[in-house]
Amino acid sequence: MDWSYIQGILMLAGINLIAVLGLSLLTGFTGLFSFGHAGFMAIGAYIGALMTASPNSTPAGLGLPFFVGIIAGGAAAGIVGYLIGRITLNLKGDYFCIATLGFGEAIRLILNNVQTFGGSRGWPGIPYKSTLPTIIIVDVLAVIFLANIVHSRHGRNMVAVREEELAAQVTGINVFKSKMTALVISAVYAGIAGVFFAHYMTFIQPKMFSMNKSTELTIIVIFGGLGSISGSVLGALVLTALPELLRTFDIWRLVFYGAAVILIMISRPRGLMGGMELTPAGIRKVKAERKARQAAKASLMALNEPEEGAGLGEGKGA
Amino acid sequence: MKKVLIGLMLVISMVFISCGGSGKGNTIKVGWFGALTGDQAVWGENELNTVKMLFEEYNAAGGIDVGGKKYKLEVIGYDNKGDAQEAVNVTKRLTGQDKVVAILGPNASGNAIPIAPILEQAKVPDIATVATNPKVTVLDGKVKPYNFRVCFIDPYQGAVAAGYAYDRLGARKAAILYDVSDDYSQGLREFFKLNFEKKGGTIVADESFNGGDVDFRPQLSKIKATNPDIIFMPYFFKEVALSANQARDLGIKQVLMGGDGWPSDQLISMGGKAVEGCYFVNHLDYADPAVQDYKTRYKAKYGKETELNGYLVHDAVLVLVAGLQKAGKVNGEALAKALEGIEVQGITGKINISPETHNPEGKDAAIEKIVNGQYVFQERYAAQ
Amino acid sequence: MIQFLQQLINGLSIGSIYALMAVGYSLVYSIMNFSNFAHGSVIMLGAYFGFFALTGLNLPFFAAFMVACIGTTILAIVIERVAYKPLRERQAPFLYFIISAMGASILLENLVIATIGPTFRTYPPIFERTPLYIGSLAIGRLDLMMFIISAICLAGLLLFINKTKMGKAIQAASYNIKACALMGINTDRIILIVFGLGGFLAGVAGVFFGMKYTVYPQIGNITTKSFIAAVFGGLGSLPGAVIGSIILGVLETLVAGYISSQYRDLIAFVILIGVLIFRPTGIMGKSTVDKA
Prior knowledge:
By secondary structure, chain A is an all-alpha fold. Chain A has helices spanning 3-29, 37-52, 66-88, 93-113, 132-150, 153-163, 165-170, 175-201, 211-224, 229-245, 253-267, 280-317; strands at 123-124, 203-204. In chain A, 54% of the residues are buried.
């Protein structure tokens, strides 16, 4: 296969991964379901483009270096995430879903109408800055940062909120603050992913950040497995490549894609890597659990056998 | 888990098998991509079918002559759902893996714009069909070396529609209804508004809907109250038929006008009486003897009528073949050079690709009127 | 004034379409506690079933209507068996149901594109197109019909749920499905019936949608609006779903008519979210009492 084609898919997977990692913190670790993360990506993409695009192009940018774009895009998404969180984080379950869905659609609607950013006709001529090495570096940093959060007190609080909100509150966890932290971090991640996306495509259009993009991200997180960082990595790689791999099936490929999603849900109900991690410690944990299970089974059998033996013995004795 | 892994392996191995068959020495591989799924699929299917039909015809006639050697044509068509990200993926696949010499399509401007850097890197020219945004071929005053198209552009079409409405139909007050989430619709609306106001007309209502909407009565009721002379509807025929029917239901009797998103037999079957007496800007005259041959060939082969995109991709194929013959060799870079300034008599008119803009210059628009469920050609109309 | 009344009529008619779709959502939600995103695809197939029964089999309208409804009933049950039952048995969290539902909806939409094709199809004219006029107010015949059918469906459904033994069981299951199972109610059958009913309603909605707005594979997308309406009305409450839909329809219409059609959805969303802040479970939602 051709390298530039594979490279392109890897880059897209890497970009998706940044957003997926953030969403994994929100959905996988904190238990909040978002339909609007494409909105945060859009904010990152447009603010990033505003920073880096040439002042002589239409729409005009500021012509600043790429890293300024990354920081500004991430920060802008984070700030918007905070504001949205203030309003909506008290809503529960599907009600929060709807609020995020509304947010995502609202962002798209605003961008469609704002002609200074090109409206629905889009923003062409964004400099090509996303390279595979930079994306990989950012991915690695994103994973390390996320792993640190997850293993910190904040991370444990988030899991507690996911498992049983009320109990978490009773034990003195500030539920709102935990949710807010997760939302803001995931928004920043999505924003940065948006910046990279814009500088990979060199053209952005509000259409690209529709609800389908949000659900695609959510599907990756759940496909990979809730509460697993390595699951998200695996999920992003597999699901970004899958539609391309299925290309031979022509117009049937999305039928297979849908079928694959259902299949993985019903055959591996916790996603590819639900709750497990592909780290030495994680593998040891899984092995230990398996061993413990086997030991338990063995002891159960051992428990049963003597009883039978005893029974027989008794019979003999009588 | 094992089952899933085995499934994945199967898929991957199939992909590799499909990659195996590379072209032989006397085949020219041409890429096509567009929407075969998603809401643009009607047009994508029509384009790919047309390309396949034409290539089969060329091959049956012994292939085409390039630099004294006979070549067969082969199309490699991919679906991109009308999605820009997938457009980038398939362009990389077509240029990198399938090693095509040129790409035909896509029909959407939003898909044609982001592929430009990839084309430049791979030195593969693209001939877009109905991507009408000026930025497809020219960006910030610079022409993109590998992007071409065979259709006129939004500013031109908007000017034609506004000019015809003002000068020929005598409209002074116009209302616009457009799809705010669609780049094509927003482009036409912008240039219609600009030109109509420049001529001295007023836009009395400027209303929009959101892509995927099916009910336009709130906007139409509002438009009705402003009592315009004409209502401009720059979007695709499904929405046109729905909004035209709803407008008539609300008692709106005004003439409706549209762009090249209108022409389709489905507009007549869905719109019926509601679109009677309405005008639209088209790329060609359907009654033109030059197009009848293609129309009947398509109908005979696929059992249904061709859409507008078919005519344009037909001409894109003519331009491609002429370009290859002019270049004298099967090479993307030479082909791109040859396409500049090329002159081809297509079924949608004379196509003269300008080296400065890579657009077909001097291609007049056709104005059509719907009379008794038929498209009746009015005149060739050029915007001043 | 005339324009305002006309807009009100427009809004009511849009709202009643949303309502037909939203009731099915809400019914499934009340038992399963998850949003069945495959519902939109079932509606889409309902529209196709009706279309082919009318044009392909040349059935009279009522027969075609029944064919569509029975077809979607079976389809909804099959989806439940294939995509949800295995999850149910494992007691998977609601997120998995949603993803499975999305998978099903991607699959069905593209299955239609791959087999039937992407072209739009128009229903043969069944009701006369010319609207009824009251003064200069136009009321579509189909809209009126749809409004009445929505009302009949809803009334029938409420009657079924409140008056029959099976309905009582459904009510009990929506209150607490585990306790229900302990009381000796066959919850598996309840779920089957609920999905069947949801599918039947999807068939009704599909045929009417098809008649009014043509048939195409992406119909399912419009159901996002009815999902919003169902949430707004209070998920799990059938009258809530209807009221939410009507309010959303009228709200959208008035915003587009009097404020801005460009920002219609934005303003409508802001208002909806505003309402949710003061009533976090929607207008008529089950008040979720925290298990303290």
